[in-house]
Amino acid sequence: METGERIDKDSGERISAKYIQKLSCEHNGKEVFLAQFGTSISQNPYLAFSFKEGKKGDILSLRWNDNTGDVKKTDTTIK
What we know:
Blueprint: E1 20-27, E2 30-36, E3 59-66, E4 71-77
Antiparallel strand pairs: 1-2, 1-3, 3-4
């Protein structure tokens, strides 16, 4: 996570901003969680949420986008 305000100690140049803008979670093709962030998000944020439809063994699909256009996705199984 970089806000774009920090200066590199060695080069003296500003470090480009890079931070998560959006995080979503889908269960059976339905969005069950959505969060939008800005530069104030922690470098290692902890998030928790609950929803009623999930059961053990179901798959949750998590997707996050950052301000540079990078998109990541991972799936996890409800335990």
